[in-house]
């Protein structure tokens, strides 16, 4: 049986054909996931990125027939989504840094309570991190050091630092620390 071309699948997708979408998804997920995994090193995030790329394709299916080459399109979309995630993480580190470490004096009693609760949760979350992970999170948020700078200071590879930082920030999120600073 002859395989349907990418262009035919895109044409059918633009007409709302779910089977064509499923076929394209099954065709490209096995190559897209390892690409993202090579730069991300976080299984859950990799899966999310791949899913979001295909969700966006489906949401904009009326324009799918305008895509000339599927593989480069999907890889670029995945790369852009990953870069957006990095920017989001940097913004979250900045928020933590600004609120946790700069001793902002909230104006209303409600803001003061929220701030104190956020500080308590932040300190609790930091105290539960391993010493190395805590050091990396603090270097990233307090000192705003780059991954390369942290890597050279702690004597670990950039990938190890990135992984420990991501895990540390994920734990901060787990304790819902971020919601107190938005």
UniProtKB/TrEMBL annotation:
Residues 24-90 form the RNA polymerase sigma-70 region domain. The keyword NAD does not apply. Pfam families: Sigma70_r2, Sigma70_r4_2. Keywords: DNA-binding, Sigma factor, Transcription, Transcription regulation. It comes from the Bacteria. Belongs to the sigma-70 factor family. ECF subfamily. This is Sigma-70 family RNA polymerase sigma factor.
